[in-house]
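Anyone have tokens for General transcription factor II-I repeat domain-containing protein 2A? Sequence:
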Amino acid sequence: MSSNVTHVQVEDIQLASALSLSIDESCDIKDTEQVTLFVGYMSSQGPKEELLGLLPLSGQIHEEDIANAVQKCLEDNGIDSAQTFPAEIVEVMNMVIKIINNILVKALYHRQFKDFLEEIDSQFSDLLLHNKVRWLSRGNVVQRFALCLSEIKTFLNEKNIDHLELEEDKWLQKFNFMGDTAMKLNELNLKLQGKGNPDYVLLEEVVCFEKNCFFLLKTWRAVNYFILKI
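Reply: yep, here.
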């Protein structure tokens, strides 16, 4: 009976258009560290939250260990956790990460870039590295990159590092669209956190987010159409 219930739950989750994950650390009666994974989603019967698994962990626990355990549990249950951005937007994010790595990974460049920001009295002292484990990372990284874009282009030009995309209107439009969407996702994730929020309040936040995304997409397409017509 229990296996049949689990099978039905997983089928409902697989059919959901969007998911929210809640993760909590605890210990069993043998003091074994484990992660409790709950999945929230909208079913045909309304909003639901189900226990998907108890994931045992061993040794010294790091963020990557928890992320890998959660990812494996999702994959074992046939639940797709892939990014939902279109491929062309994912390419923009990959380019942003590549440019950041070009500056931060090399110790000399990193030190010189920080000195450059200090010299021009920038409001920021450094860029941010993208970390897939940290759930707010993408939005924060993109926002910092956008606010430092002028400084980044100046620094890259001084180092004779060519990234022609940074001068292309079409690429910058995709970048701005991705940045706006990522920050909206961060805002939504923060609003959905915590205990005691009624389901209808959470649902209202998700619906508002969908409307905002539709407006962003409609605006982005209209701007692209206008540029193409010119």
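The chain has two domains: 4-83, 87-190.
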